[in-house]
Amino acid sequence: MAEAFRFGVTRSPEALANARRALDGITALVDVTGTDVLARFLIPTSSPYAARILEEEARHSAWTTTYQGQSYTWLGNTSRDQYSGVFFGLGVAHDLIDDEVMRTQIRAVVGRLLTFLLRNGWNVRMPDGTYSTTFAQRPEQQLSFLQVGRRVDPARWD
Predict the structure, then answer these.
(1) How many CB atoms lie within 10 A of CB 101?
(2) How far apart are CA 10 and CA 49, in angstroms?
(3) Structure pTM?
(4) Cys-Cys with 96: which of 4, 70, 116, 149 at CB 3.0–4.6 Å?
(5) CB neighbourhood size of 63 (10 A)
(6) Sign (positive/negative) of CA torsion 68, 72, 78, 83?
(7) 3-state helix/strand/coil string of 6-21
């Protein structure tokens, strides 16, 4: 979101590149799970930092999967705050960055996240069937996510 604001004001190619990397990172957090749940974090299993990070984050559920031909570990227990930050950032980026490739990617990620939440009754369901959090009793957050959906893809979410 910060790089989207920076790009909106300065039109800096560096800000655009940083925003694109952030968007790719968010997309990876959705792709790596295989279910369209938003991962809390992901790291290549081969990273020299993986063991220590995963030890520190042991309270969060961890899954290992192959993503883009490489072994990754990702963490679950994604919070409502993380979802809110991602939706807000994607909405801001869509409004301030006039790159159609990025806007298409934003629409796709927002659509996947919203579809996942709706399919699961506004619950964040992990692949093992456990729930990390719920938006079921949070109509203001449901509405804000749907408004982002409507903003980025009105034909689908109006």
Answers:
(1) 10
(2) 35
(3) 0.94
(4) 4
(5) 17
(6) negative
(7) HHHHHCCHHHHHHHHH
CA distances from 30 to 1, 27, 113 (A): 18, 5, 8
- Count other C-beta atoms under 10 Å from residue 147's C-beta: 13
pLDDT tens profile 134-155: 999 999 999 999 999 999 999 9
- CA gap 64, 44 in Å, rounded: 9
